[in-house]
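The records we work with from here on pair a chain with its fold. A complete example follows; check for yourself that the lines match position by position.
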Amino acid sequence: MRNISSSYKRIAPNQPPCYNRNVNIKVVSTNRKAKFEFHILETFEAGISLKGSEIKSIRAGQMSIKEAYIRVTENEAWLMEAYIAPYTEANRFNHEPRRPRQLLLHKREIRNLRKTTQQKGLTIIPTKVYLKAGRAKVEIALARGKKLHDKRQAIKQRDTERELKRQMRNRE
């Protein structure tokens, strides 16, 4: 008799049960300052509506979301100020580098995002852009801005962690 439990793959406890390990994910751009500037409350995955030259440029890793933000209108979400470098092979059919790009989300998700930003004073920021199964996706986060004392505390904590690591290396 065959042991059924051994034929199933185990999922690590920190991964959600619906996580598909077979999908290759290539991170193209990250917003490294997001965790320093904001308290991140909740994250979502959204698709991006792109032109042909834009996706080719993203696949080449030519994208930045440092100054980017998300604007939610009545029933649409837009990625604003994200920089996608012009694709050299596209010549006259190239795209505008900082044009607004529509995010692909369900209507109820857009409605919930709009409500929470209006009521609670939260902002929506892009934290990561990646390629998942050949499609460009953006991870957006519902966030609250940090106060100055919170930022100072984060700097202090980061410095103490660095110092502890240095001391541990010196002991070995």
Residues 2 and 126 are 47 Å apart (CA to CA). DSSP finds four helices and nine strands in the chain. The chain has one domain: 23-171.
